[in-house]
């Protein structure tokens, strides 16, 4: 995460996302929790994944757990999400 990004205050949408992502949530669950429109949530998540405040996860049937996704290959609606340590630190130190 860039130092400059850590100084930018979180938007209302980012605050709502980080409030909800203390636990792994699907896109649909996150949308219900945040009350954000689909396109608004997608844009917010993409920016937060890029800034490393949120991590996208995919279910691994082999390992029977959610694993971090290195590259988004499908619609965001097919992933689950979790706030990163850095994202939670930004959120709680704001």
Description:
This protein is an alpha+beta fold. It has five helices and four strands. The protein has helices at 3-7, 12-20, 27-34, 38-50, 85-93, and strands at residues 25-26, 54-60, 65-68, 80-83. Strands 1-4-2-3 form a four-stranded antiparallel β-sheet. The longest helix is centred in the middle third of the chain and has 13 residues, at 38-50. It is globular, with a radius of gyration of 13 Å. The mean pLDDT is 91.
Fold blueprint:
Layout: H1 3-7, H2 12-20, E1 25-26, H3 27-34, H4 38-50, E2 54-60, E3 65-68, E4 80-83, H5 85-93
Antiparallel strand pairs: 1-4, 2-3, 2-4
Question: Which keywords apply here?
Answer:
alpha+beta; 4 strands; four-stranded antiparallel β-sheet; 94 residues; 18% strand
Describe the structure concisely for a colleague.
The chain is of the alpha+beta class and 94 residues long. The chain contains 5 helices and 4 strands.
- Describe the biggest sheet? 4 strands, antiparallel
Q: What are the segments in which pLDDT stays under 50 over at least 5 consecutive residues?
A: none
- End-to-end gap: 16 Å
Radius of gyration: 13 Å
Strand order of the largest sheet: 1-4-2-3
What is the number of E strands?
A: 4
Average pLDDT taken over every residue:
91
**Could you estimate the helical fraction of the residues in percent?**
40-55%
Q: Report the total helices.
A: 5
In sequence order, what are the helices and strands, one letter per element?
HHEHHEEEH
Structural class: alpha+beta
What is the beta-strand fraction? 15-25%
């Amino acid at each position: 995460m860039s130092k400059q990004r850590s100084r930018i205050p979180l938007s209302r949408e980012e605050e709502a996302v980080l409030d909800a992502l203390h636990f792994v949530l699907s896109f649909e669950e996150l949308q219900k929790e945040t009350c954000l429109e689909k396109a608004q949530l997608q844009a917010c998540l993409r920016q937060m994944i890029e800034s490393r405040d949120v991590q996208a996860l995919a279910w691994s049937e082999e390992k029977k757990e959610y694993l971090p996704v290195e590259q988004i290959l499908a619609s965001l609606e097919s992933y689950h999400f979790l706030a990163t340590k850095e994202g939670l630190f930004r959120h709680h130190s704001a």
